[in-house]
Amino acid sequence: MSTTSTEDTWSPLRADPSTTQPGVVLHGRAWTSAPAFPDPVAPRPCVVLARVVGTAGGYVRGLSAAGAPVTVCTTLDQVGPALSRFGSEADVVDLRPLDGADVVESLGLGAALSGRTARLVTVVRGVFDVLGDEHLDPRLAMLPAVCRSVRQENPLLATSCLDVTDASAPADGLVRLLSGRELPASAALRRNTTWYPQPHRLHAASSGPVIRPHGVYLVLGGLGRLGAQVARAIAAQAPTTLVLAQRNLPRYSAGLPVGGSAVDLRQVDVTSPAQLSALLDAVQAQYGGLHGVVHAAGTRLSRARIDELPTHRSIRDQLTEATAASVLGTTTLYAALEGRDLDFCALVTPGPEAPGHALHTAAAAFQHAFAHKARSRAGRPWTAVGGELSALGAGLLPALATGVGSVLATAP
Ligand SMILES: NC(=O)c1ccc[n+]([C@@H]2O[C@H](COP(=O)([O-])OP(=O)(O)OC[C@H]3O[C@@H](n4cnc5c(N)ncnc54)[C@H](OP(=O)(O)O)[C@@H]3O)[C@@H](O)[C@H]2O)c1
């Protein structure tokens, strides 16, 4: 995807060439189980990082039994010297998420390992819904996304996120993972089985159009680049009322070129519960209903390279700031829509995974997990749609028709 863009000159009133690309391919995620790795590698020296020494006990015993020399660290600054003492390629096992460490601490470890040759396994719980009925915490779901970003930013570092929820023997599973020649980006242990995620092709259901003729649709971030693509995609289906909302309304007040649809521009900050509820009430009162919401509000950051951020505190600040519209906006929207009966709520997730985009990647992972959870746990018709910019405008409505909570749209 091109990130250079026409940012300075782009206007929703102009045609956007990315909407004209024909066709999209939609993907979901499936989990497949696999036996132990063939041709295991010899155990390497291992640095185990744990907040609580007791958490490390079983893992240290398992690694030692497999023949790996192990050093346990309880603070980040002990990791570098421990690796240097081993003096060769080594593995790092981060157990801190099992004792409440969050994504910011993973970003800190990634930065501390920058420039080193190592393999890093982050051990987590409650991050993946592998079996289809598992509890999933959207905040924790940011962890594997950040691990993948850390891997992309550090070519010498291979990373993996291992979810040990309900594992019968988590240490054995960890040893199995580390005995593979290649470290999978994500894996999950359930009882005695190791599972791996695989993309799988999705097809839109053929049960009629998602957009109702004369329906009322709210697009948050509706005059942004993606929001306007979405508005045009909705309008191309049927004449509707499109309520386009964002914090700042433009100087021009002319409508978008959206065929027979009516456009209503509104001001809202998606992170404000009061403003969002007031907007929903006003739309409901004026139009007598609301049929769908698309959350396409977000901030496109300049490249926020984690190794350029000096302290943990600043990583946390950056994360909060960069993801406010996506993360806080999503939870605010969920609460504001409570009790309102919609055909769909779509979250358009921040950009693709790429070096320098760890914060966006984390926000996208949050939204995908949130929509999956809203659909599977609360029965709400939520879908997060991510993927290539060129495919999002054309892919959004087909993605909603798949009936799946988390979809990636790519150009064929
Ligand atoms: N998957 C991909 O390939 C991809 C590509 C591009 C973008 N995206 C994501 O999609 C989202 C929008 O991107 P874009 O390219 O359309 O960006 P954009 O052109 O900068 O538009 C962002 C829109 O969001 C609004 N907004 C930002 N913060 C808001 C808030 N707190 N409350 C209400 N509205 C808010 C902005 O208006 P105001 O500033 O006036 O509020 C604007 O309308 C971002 O999250 C971005 O990361 C994904």
From TrEMBL:
GO terms for biological process: fatty acid biosynthetic process. The keyword Transcription does not apply. Keywords: Phosphopantetheine, Phosphoprotein. Residues 1-21 are annotated as: Disordered. GO terms for molecular function: fatty acid synthase activity. Residues 215-395 form the Ketoreductase domain. The keyword Phosphoprotein applies. Pfam families: KR. This is Ketoreductase domain-containing protein. It comes from Kutzneria albida DSM 43870.
